[in-house]
Amino acid sequence: MLRFRTQLCCFTMLLVPAICINVQSDCLGQDGIDQPKHQVKTLYGKENLVAWCIVPFDAKKRGPAARAEMVQQLGLGKVAYDWRAEHVPTFEQEILEYKKREIEFFAFWSWHDELEPLIKKHGIRPQIWVTLSSPQGETESERVRRASDALLPLVKKTKDLGLQIGLYNHGGWGGQPSNLLTVCKQLRRDTQSDHIGIVYNFHHAHEDMDEFARVLPDMAPFLLCLNINGMVSPEEMVANNQKIIPVGSGKYEKAMMQAILKSPYRGPIGILDHRGEVDARESLQQNLDGLQRIVEQW
């Protein structure tokens, strides 16, 4: 009888992934997953991975050619391009170096007018990732309207250019999954367009981990990319400065990654550097190694 109760308890926990995170238990995936191996490899294989935050955060401060060479050597085929003012003059060189190596210029952070002629000239179609703001308002509907209205000019521009725009969670009100969804749907209604989606980041979601498995099915149809990260509790993150850590070195990313497998989402997965004191190649390799360790358990 005790054995039966233990099995029943484990089965119940599998049905409610959020509980696993709340009690700091990595119960998901202990007995494998029900998806075929090829689905695991398709979702988390190198051909589906996107290198993110590898430009201003690279300790080696690579230029476009060295960066493209690094990405190619790691076996990655997509880059989401983050930048600072000093990188604007080399936008075109970056595009050309990626093209030379058949690397996709997959996404571009925020917006810069210098990108527009390059889109047309080189025939690229990057997603445009932009932070969803956290405006003030007396009611939720007022905050939704203000957040939506602030993005309308860029939503129109991306539509005219044939680009997708991703609302990027970066903490606060605008980082909460329910608000991302509400604003995304509002913008789609306002513009009668489906080119607006969501880019969801583990490293800005420590406070929402316990809800991730529950809200993911609702977000899945709108997701343009999911960026993963090693995940610890919010308290550990603050106490030990562990906001950005490699995949496989945290306690909760495995359960969150399994929730992705159980969801309808089969789009790109991002891995990030985002550690200015670390060589971007080393940081990406740590993520690849940690990801491989998790996948091998499935």
Form type: globular
What is the ordering of alpha helices and beta strands?
Answer: HHHEHEHEHEHEHEHEHHEH
CATH class: Alpha Beta
Radius of gyration: 20 Å
Judged by helices, strands and strand pairing, the structural class is: alpha/beta
Determine the N-to-C terminus distance.
29 Å
Tag the structure with descriptive keywords:
globular; 298 residues; 8-stranded parallel β-barrel; TIM Barrel; 46% helix
Descriptive report:
- This protein has a single domain, classed as Divalent-metal-dependent TIM barrel enzymes (TIM Barrel, Alpha-Beta Barrel).
- α8 (177-191) links the parallel β5 and β6.
- It has 298 residues and is of the alpha/beta class.
- It has 12 helices and 8 strands.
Topology:
Elements: H1 2-15, H2 17-22, H3 37-44, E1 49-52, H4 64-73, E2 78-81, H5 91-100, E3 104-109, H6 115-122, E4 127-131, H7 140-161, E5 165-168, H8 177-191, E6 196-201, H9 209-219, E7 223-227, H10 234-240, H11 253-262, E8 269-272, H12 280-296
Parallel strand pairs: 1-2, 1-8, 2-3, 3-4, 4-5, 5-6, 6-7, 7-8
Quick overview:
The protein is of the alpha/beta class and 298 residues long.
